[in-house]
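In this supplementary section we document a worked example of the pipeline. Step one takes a protein sequence of length 369 as its only input; no multiple sequence alignment statistics are reported here. Step two produces a three-dimensional model, which step three serialises into structure tokens for compact storage. The input and output of this example are shown verbatim.
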Amino acid sequence: MKVLRIKAIAKKELIQIWRDPLSLAMAFLMPVMLLFIFGYAITLDVNNLKTVVYDLDKSNLSRELITEFRESGYFTVVDNVNEHREIDRYLDSGKAQVAIAIPADFSRNILKGENAGLQVIVDGSDSNTATIAIGYISAVTELYSQRIKGSRITPLIDPRVRVWYNPELKSRNYIIPGLIAVIMAVIAALLTSLTIAREWERGTMEQLISTPVKTPELILGKLIPYFVIGFIDVILSVMMAVFIFDVPLRGNLVLLAALSSIFLFGGLSLGILISIAAKSQLVASQISMVATFLPAFLLSGFMYAIANMPKPLQIITYAIPARYFVSILKGIFLKGITLKFLVLETVLLTVFGLAVLALANKKFKKRIV
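The serialised model returned by step three reads:
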């Protein structure tokens, strides 16, 4: 294997990229755009629960309760209705997610020291939002009860809870690192999936075949320019995560760069393999999108916990390289963990990259079929 041949192929590929504005846009703008859009669009935080109130008591205590809900920061009272059937209209139309009905004897029961009933209706069409809303409602009503009673009931068990790594429980802090893994999985495979196929479509593959360039030299020469581009995309993504989305980066930057390089190597090799098999840029790009985006988005643990998936799907996730990169990014970003905790992920990503590169090398034949 000669270095000069690899450099010649890499230089040729760089010139092609530079002369193709679409490739440049896809290489640099697409990752930034995807991270920006998905970073703001995907959130599991619930901060604006539209609430409608049906207050039959109309007392100071009932108004104080509604104020507690409003000032909690989680509920937005959109209207006060005068009939119970109006609640159905708000919930059916989606104009409200929560309805609070305060009975006429609410304040009287409280003043007597008796339990005061409170009807709360939550839209369960979004189960995640409904579950979070119920937790907020329980917290608001408990704090309100303690305040008006003037004393705090001491439970038999008093848990002292501390949240590590993400104390404010911001969903963005763990979504953004996982999102970087998904985007880079797609971009890496998509970029190189067009390289070999483009040579066949443009009729330049015959010229390459006639040269003394060997298959490993050709593949590595094609990989190197896109590896540099992919690494720049990783740097841009990390900078956006830290400076735009305020995600804490507690780990070692050198470790992050090294493990990102291993992941990029596997993703780019996969794109080369797809390009060799497809021999068409359109087909190659479609295959690379299907083979990377859906598995990375759904089966990497980015959005859905792998432990909650059915056993067959859990087994399939071991073949998804993005699964390991998601763990790496979340660990380095949020926990600041070192390499000794990421040995398994590093080894598996390395094995994946080498295996795919070897398969691509075996698949490509220097002959016109």
